[in-house]
Amino acid sequence: MSVRCSVLDCQEKGSLPVVATVFDKLNQVYKEYLEAEQSYTADVSHKFIIAVLMEYIRSLNQYQITVQVKPGGVITPALTVFNVSEETSD
Q: Which InterPro entries does the UniProt record give (predicted)?
């Protein structure tokens, strides 16, 4: 998941508590996802799996999130790599 928040941007650094809150919210959603994933049985139909995948792709497209396809056909959001450079003041 590519999350770019102004609190993580080099020009507008957020305080540590704000960054911690962002991570807490992301992890809360991820935990709910993991719990839901564990509740599925192995008898899920192929049609349902395809429908879920299509909804995932539709949602990524709706929010204009780019994806990358990893080996094995795994589709994941493309993560943005931040280039952090130290600025020196004279």
A: RMC1_C
DSSP string, 20-87: HHHHHHHHHHHHHHHHHHHHS-TT--HHHHHHHHHHHHHHHHHTT--EEEETTTEEEEPPPPP-----
Q: What is the separation of C-alpha 87 from the centre of its chain, rounded to a whole number of angstroms?
A: 29
For the chain, domain boundaries: 6-77
Contacts of 6 (CB under 8 A, 6+ apart): 12, 14
Read off the pLDDT of each residue in 73-81 and give the average, rounded to a whole number. 69
